[in-house]
Amino acid sequence: MSERIIVPFGPQHPVLPEPIHIDLVLEDETVVEAIPSIGYIHRGLEQLVQKREYTEYVYVAERICGICSFIHALCYSQGIEHIMEVEVPDRARYLRTIWSECSRLHSHLLWLGLFADSMGFENLFMRSWQLRESVLDVFEDTTGGRIIQGTCKIGGVRRDIEQEKLDEMHRTLDPFEEKCRDLGDVFLNDETVKYRLQGLGVISKDEAYALGAAGPTARASGVAMDHRETGYAAYGDLGFKPVVETAGDCYARCAVRVKEVYASIDLIRKAIEGMPDGAIDVKVKGTPNGEFFSRAEQPRGEVVHYLKANGTKHLARARIRTPTLANIPPLVKMLPGAQLADVPVVVLSIDPCISCTER
Amino acid sequence: MGIFQMTKTVLRNIAGGPATRQYPAVPARTSPLTRGHVVFDPSTCRSCNICSRKCPCEAIRIDKEEKIWEIDRMRCIACGDCVESCPFGSVTMEQDYFPPVMEHAVERYTITYVKPEKPAKKPVEEDTGA
């Protein structure tokens, strides 16, 4: 038996923009054990719920993560709306869906770029980010912010999208989809990508389920769990079906995200076509009293906001479970057996968002 | 076949121009909705304090006695809540981002132009009271 050594991975690592530390126990070049540790960027955002009014906390919730910002705000708002029994207008539900799917597009394109970069395919990385830029431009035109949208509020949305802009978005979807399909074609069919990813970091369906994997990590192993199926916001009207792969390796996780990009474009198209008229918000009066587990599907998986209100304008408690936290146990299972050079690819394949995880 | 998936993209790359622009020689892309920074107009502010109460990050402070309106640019997240809630249109949003600064300083405005309005209101109240 060869000698075992421990190689630290992170918290500062070229492929990770955010700090997570993993102690890799190696035998020669092969990982036999991975011991993760988090806790480098805890910001105390859950505690802040007791100091900010429940309407103001939407902005804090949005800043938990720089990528799924809109969906955090949406999940929090839906929770408060449920506690206060506020009915959101149809147009607001559709607008929320459009912005959620735009978030998913820009998150997945960002991830595809980072993933290509992690396996050394820099041209593909730049092409992905170039496409992502056009999604960010749509965000800026419709909400005023590229990353932090600030449009979700309790009782609806703060901004409407004009019909001309919706038509323009609808027109640009087809060329955008064509470009995405060109890009996805490289990820799905290129031999070098396949050679690098297939059979790497495999996790079976049962393991993924037992370890509580969320989002694309679970769906790549054949666990067809997608919270959008429950039909929150306007997903119920749009006929959504989750994207599922069965192999459970890095290639499958990549394929799920590529296909979700296509699915998101399709959802945006359907939402624009079915956009109802009417108000975009309702006036919310009073203070919330009660508790609720609010859930939404982020690009990385299912996010849970537990909100407890006590009848004052400050909530008593908020607890946020983000998808990356759920995906770290499967990651620990994926790493043993991988070569040291493949570790960055396996770690990135769960799309880790440490800001979310530590809040 | 499989290793040439990227060829179409590469050819398009060669034919097309650069995807980036020569910032700052070419200005950055903005839209009319872009939330850059908050601008305050001291001539219309009536010290109602709504912007200060609405601000989720406590960046705005108003001193009614001293007639002072302060904004801490490093706290401000440009959410636009103050702009939407201001009943007098004193707070507006500009598209360009606030330039970087070397020191943490609070921007202070003196609400001077309100003074001519208030004495005009007071006699009216006294008249109705009498």
Secondary structure elements and pairings:
The complex is a heterodimer of chains A (359) and B (130).
Chain A: E1 4-9, E2 21-27, E3 30-37, H1 57-62, H2 69-84, H3 90-118, H4 122-143, E4 152-153, E5 156-157, H5 163-189, H6 191-197, H7 205-210, H8 216-219, H9 235-238, H10 250-273, E6 289-298, E7 301-310, E8 315-321, H11 323-334, H12 343-349, H13 354-358
Chain B: H1 7-15, E1 37-40, H2 50-54, E2 60-63, E3 68-72, H3 81-85, E4 91-94, E5 106-110, H4 117-129
Antiparallel strand pairs in B: 1-4, 2-3, 3-5
What does the model show?
- The complex is a heterodimer of chains A (359) and B (130).
- Chain A has 359 residues and is of the alpha+beta class.
- Chain A has a single domain (42-299, 312-319), classed as Cytochrome-c3 Hydrogenase, chain B, CATH 1.10.645.10.
- Chain A has 13 helices and eight strands.
- Chain A has a three-stranded antiparallel beta sheet with strand order 1-2-3. In chain A, strands 6-7-8 form a three-stranded antiparallel beta sheet.
- In chain A, a hairpin with a 2-residue loop joins β2 (21-27) and β3 (30-37).
- The mean pLDDT of chain A is 87.
- Chain B is an alpha+beta fold and 130 residues long.
- Chain B has helices at residues 7-15, 50-54, 81-85, 117-129, and strands at residues 37-40, 60-63, 68-72, 91-94, 106-110.
- Chain B has a three-stranded antiparallel beta sheet with strand order 2-3-5. In chain B, strands 1-4 form a two-stranded antiparallel sheet.
- In chain B, a hairpin with a 4-residue loop joins β2 and β3.
- Chain B is elongated.
- Classes of the chains: A alpha+beta (359), B alpha+beta (130).
